[in-house]
Amino acid sequence: MAWVSLVVAGLFEMFWATMMKLSEGFSKLNYSLLTLIGMVASFYFLAKALHSLPMSLAYPIWTGIGAVGSILIGVIFFKDHLSLLTSFFVLLLIAGIIGIKVTSGH
């Protein structure tokens, strides 16, 4: 269940980052509120995951899910451009997240 909580926390990390972008500097109330709700939910599920998982495992995976997911959202929905080199480093992030999980023993 801790892994499910951690993945949900990462998904909410992506959600609040997207809502913050849409809030246009917190000038749009609805998106600003959704940003705060997403932040609280992300931290809540991270805290649940930390009951069973070590911080040295859970925190980097949580941030990695949020980072990679936000990059994908930026590219798909906001038409952000990634250079070939940047794409390579995103793949390294994904490999790092998978590597941390596989070698953690949890």
TrEMBL record:
SUPFAM superfamilies: Multidrug resistance efflux transporter EmrE. Gene3D superfamilies: 1.10.3730.20. Signal peptide: none annotated. It is a multi-pass membrane protein. Keywords: Cell membrane, Membrane, Transmembrane, Transmembrane helix, Transport. Its main location: membrane. The chain crosses the membrane at residues 33-50, 57-78, 84-103. It is found in: Cell membrane. The keyword DNA damage does not apply. It holds the Pfam family Multi_Drug_Res. GO terms for molecular function: transmembrane transporter activity. InterPro entries: EmrE-like (IPR037185), Small_drug/metabolite_transptr (IPR000390), Small_multidrug_res (IPR045324). GO terms for cellular component: plasma membrane. Belongs to the drug/metabolite transporter (DMT) superfamily. Small multidrug resistance (SMR) (TC 2.A.7.1) family. This is SMR family multidrug resistance protein.
